[in-house]
Design goal:
Length: 169
């Protein structure tokens, strides 16, 4: 298969079950990460305790608790300058990354955003988790990498827009 693979908008049709499996291999990952990040963002935005500078369940209390064990305490210090602002930034970032991933719009940029959010959370909130594989932020970081490299070739706004650009030439 040479050429652009753009789902129902592309020119190449898979010839075998193996071709189809390879073609759609990233779709379940895209759906899982998209739904998970949309849910995480909405959960944070609707939790008044999370978006507070202090108190049980707040972003401020969480950042205070992990300050001493973070791989990069400077990131925590930066978040503590404005815990509410940091909380909103994380929540809105997760929401936008999730929506972009689900729709497949600017999918590599969305995957980069997801990877950066996961990396920052791994280096701060879940860094102290032992053994390391119990911390979910590292797993999310690794899950974003195939989407960052491969993009959303099928069932995506990116594929639809690329197809329209090809037709208009």
């Amino acid at each position: 298969m040479h050429g652009y693979r753009g789902g129902s908008y592309g020119l190449d049709e898979p010839r075998s079950l193996g071709d189809r499996a390879r073609r759609y291999a990233l779709l379940p990952l895209r759906i899982f990460l998209g739904v998970t990040f949309v849910y995480a963002g909405l959960d944070k935005l609707t939790d008044s305790a999370f978006l507070s500078a202090s108190g049980a369940g707040s972003i401020g209390a969480t950042m205070d608790a992990v300050r001493g064990s973070a791989a990069i305490p400077g990131l925590v210090d930066l978040a503590l300058k404005s815990p509410e602002g940091f909380g909103y930034a994380i929540a809105i970032g997760e929401l936008l990354v999730g929506l972009g991933t689900l729709v497949g719009l600017w999918s590599r940029l969305a995957a980069l955003g997801g990877a950066l959010i996961s990396l920052s959370l791994w280096l701060t909130v879940s860094w102290q988790t032992e053994p390391y594989y119990y911390g979910n932020d590292l797993v999310y970081l690794m899950a974003w990498l195939p989407l960052l490299l491969g993009g959303a070739a099928d069932f995506s706004a990116d594929a639809f827009l690329a197809s329209r650009r090809r037709r208009s030439r």
